[in-house]
Amino acid sequence: MSDDIILQVNNLSKCFKIYPNPWHRAREWLSLGNNTYHQPFWSLKDVSFTVHKGDFFGIIGENGAGKSTLLKIITGVLKATSGSYQLNGKVLSLLELGTDFNPELSGRGNAIYSAELLGFPEGYVQERIKEIEEFSELGDFFDRPMKLYSSGMKTRLAFSLFAFLECDVLILDEVLAVGDIFFQQKCYARLEELIAKQITIILVTHQLASVQQYCKEVILLHHGEKIFQGESMKGIIKFHQLKMGLVNHVSPAVLQEKLEVPLEIPNDFFWPADEVFIPVSFPQANYAQLISYVICNVKGEGCVNFLQGEQAYLCCEFQLKKSIAVPIVAVFITNKFNVRVHVKTSFQHKVSVPNQVNEGDYVRFCRSINLNIAPDKYVLGFGLATMNPSDYARLDELPQAEFNSRIQICDLYEKVGVFYVTSHYSNNHHSHFGLCNLPGKGQIQVITSSK
Known about the structure:
This protein is α/β, with parallel strands linked by helices. The protein folds into three domains: 1-90 and 167-237, 3-Layer(aba) Sandwich (Rossmann fold); 97-164; 244-426, abc- transporter (atp binding component) like domain (Coagulation Factor XIII, Chain A, domain 1, Distorted Sandwich), CATH 2.70.50.60. 23% of the residues lie in helices and 31% in strands. It has eleven helices and 18 strands. α5 (151-163) packs parallel to α6.
């Protein structure tokens, strides 16, 4: 193995035996292998990847994908059924936060005891104990029994200890998903210091914003198999497609046909490069197949993390399965409570549209938006509708009830992509509080008391 490679995993697999009840386990054991009473469950299947020295490497996937099993094999907690791995250096792992702590010992005592269990020589932690204590911000609780600690305090102690122990590889499993935002900032700042020292960090987390921000490369696990390895942004997009059942991309034939039919695009029409678009497939479409979409920043780069108030572009492309009259495209943004935070259509933008779109034609829509909404995770969706040209021409005159009866909904795709809005560090940059920003002006007047 090259000196630059810190971890080499080759065709790693892990199978668990699932028994209907404990007696079946005993019967199988007593049969000396002649009878089988278990069902095999493959938690990992032929997983291979390489991690280089100094990398910030991410492992993502849904619950049950095999992430924790993989880490437990790498750290020696579990034995692989087949395959091999090679580690080049000392490994520290925070897999199950605080499980090795003794509740009767103080934070100081647990720091010393844990380091000795990990093989560090006596007196090693004592030389760093002041740094660990200051980083944890536990105050007087650092010398109190751990049974008095909250879960957040245990988090602080565990990370503070591991952040100041020397190692070549630091493995973190959902560690940074807990604790307040200020401590998380300290943790990430410390991780950046470790990366600068060429220490490799392997991060397993469901906080995909952290993965995009810090990880150069990720692998995506699904049902124990590695289905993607590459840039973090592409891995995150693939993960969201997986979550929403959009992993089956459109066929190469459809993409080739699309390239052979160029669209007439106005010079001022914002449209990112083809390579940043995410192909999707919705076979159940009635009138129009959504074939690709992208969420990007002002540079036209695919992006899922935005600061509050930052401008984003939400773009989509449909291929018509049937001819329709005037096309109307809608953009939906919903939050985790399924509340529609924002819905806006192309006719509300007063865009120029044709009176008819024929079968096989493509409809592109791009919506620029300033994300003046509360920091959170949001789901993006699109929809296509149509209306007769005569009705569309007098939209401003139509009452709401009549408008609803004259518009025809073609296809709705309400769960296509996911993006994140994060807050600014400074309060001065907050445009508002609450769910969304309502444009307007405010004034204050003071009237002097007559007393």
